[in-house]
Amino acid sequence: MPHIHTHETHPATIKRLRRAGGHLASVITMLEQGKPCLDVAQQLQAVEKAVAQAKKTLIQDHLDHCLKHMVEGSGEAKGSSFEEFRLITKYL
User: Fold this and answer.
1) pLDDT of 67
2) DSSP letters of 18-75?
3) Cα–Cα dist 71/31, whole Å
4) Which residues have a Cβ under 8 Å from the Cβ of 69 and sit 6 or more positions away?
5) What's the whole-number average pLDDT of the chain?
6) Tell me, what's the pLDDT at 22?
7) Best label site of 1, 62, 84, 90, fewest CB within 10 Å?
């Protein structure tokens, strides 16, 4: 059975991504209705900001988690945490 991987910040991140999804749906509707480009651009900015903040929170939380495991862990667990730390940094 796979390990469920959650962090304390996941509920807030999910909420932020749902809000971004709502903004994105609004953008599509606005384009279909021929709304002014300035209004559409403002909504797209809101989507971009929400997604960027969700990504930042997720990665920061994961890095903190990996660092804790590297400091407190030993052997294979420590190496595994280091590898995860190394891999996730490409998304910064």
Assistant:
1) 77
2) HHHHHHHHHHHHHHHTT--HHHHHHHHHHHHHHHHHHHHHHHHHHHHHHHHHHHH--H
3) 50
4) 77, 78, 80, 81
5) 85
6) 92
7) 1
